[in-house]
Amino acid sequence: MLGGRKNYNFSDRTHSKDGKLATLLGAAAWVIMLFLICKSITSGGNVGAWFGLLGLIDIIIAFCGMVIAIIGFKDEDTFKLFPRIGLFANGILLLGLLALFVVGMGIFI
């Protein structure tokens, strides 16, 4: 330990497994999204239909991550750090992806 300090935990609470999974799904969804953006930029926007399919899969991953994060909030005797991170990461990404999808489909134009 740095400086000789010890960390004591006077609680029986643990981190939520659902929250950790939601955070992991959020991180994976962000990595996929950044990959799609980088490949689209480097190819000048000329990407195939596989990139659209990967974008839809990314929406599904972000949605599942949000649902799992909400379930993680319902766990008793657990810390709520990872469900909060997972809900925030998946929620922001899901809103952005859905907005991009709607604009790409030309629904509100």
Descriptive notes:
It contains 3 helices and 2 strands, in the order βααβα. With 109 residues, the protein is mostly helical. A two-stranded parallel ribbon has the order 1-2. The radius of gyration is 18 Å and the shape is elongated. The termini are far apart. The mean pLDDT is 87.
Quick structural summary:
Helix 1 packs antiparallel against helix 2 (49-73), helix 1 runs parallel beside helix 3 (81-105) and helix 2 runs antiparallel to helix 3 (81-105). The chain has three helices and two strands.
Short descriptors:
109 residues; 4% strand; mainly alpha; 3 helices; 2 strands; two-stranded parallel sheet
Task: Indicate the topology.
Blueprint: E1 14-15, H1 17-42, H2 49-73, E2 78-79, H3 81-105
Parallel strand pairs: 1-2
Separation of the first and last Cα atoms: 58 Å
What is the CA-based Rg, rounded? Answer: 18 Å
The helix fraction, in percent, is: 55-70%
In total, the number of domains comes to 1
Mean pLDDT: 87
